[in-house]
Amino acid sequence: MKKYKIDFEKSGGIIPAVVQDFNAGDVLMLAYMNEEAFGLTQTTGYAHYYSRSRNSIWKKGESSGHLQIVKEIYLDCDSDSVLLKVIQLGDAACHEGYRSCFFKRIEGDSFSIDVHPVFDPTEVYKD
């Protein structure tokens, strides 16, 4: 095995993290990680991300129960982004209740939604 170094500095201290279902292969979401979030992900086995809007670390599913168990991590060729292959607990990665955050299909200047949400976000996020 070779040593690696993730280039967090290239994008100001954060890197994109593509999140893919370990078994089915569908892309669930795109998030960002800083060094602390990446370290927590590695040490706990649960996906942790960096919120650019809140300027803080968050554990995926901490409030909803829809945790992500990280099975594999891949580093891209430029060492500035990662792919997480996860087991998605609760079967929904999107805070809007959908399995994947990529549920809006663009058609011209509008979009359509042809999938149904897995849960009602107003019931899950009550605070």
Tell me what you see in this structure.
The protein is built from two helices and eight strands, in the order ββαββββββα. The longest helix has 10 residues, at 35-44. It is globular and about 45 Å long. By secondary structure, it is mainly beta. The mean pLDDT is 95. A hairpin with a 5-residue loop joins β1 and β2. The protein has a four-stranded mixed β-sheet, covered by helices on one side. Strands 3-4 form a two-stranded antiparallel sheet.
DSSP, total strands: 8
Rg estimate, integer Å:
15 Å
Query: How far from one another are the termini?
Result: 46 Å
Beta-strand residue fraction: 25-35%
Mind describing the biggest β-sheet?
4 strands, mixed
Oligomeric grouping of the chains:
single chain
- Uncertain runs: none
Could you estimate the helical fraction of the residues in percent?
10-25%
Core attributes:
single chain, 127 residues, mainly beta, four-stranded mixed beta sheet, two-stranded antiparallel sheet, 2 helices
Briefly characterize the structure.
By secondary structure, the protein is mainly beta. The protein has helices at about 35-45, 120-125, and strands at about 15-20, 25-35, 50, 55-60, 70-75, 80-90, 105, 110.
SSE topology sketch:
Layout: E1 15-21, E2 27-33, H1 35-44, E3 48-51, E4 56-59, E5 68-75, E6 82-88, E7 105-107, E8 110-112, H2 121-124
Parallel strand pairs: 1-6
Antiparallel strand pairs: 1-2, 3-4, 5-6, 7-8
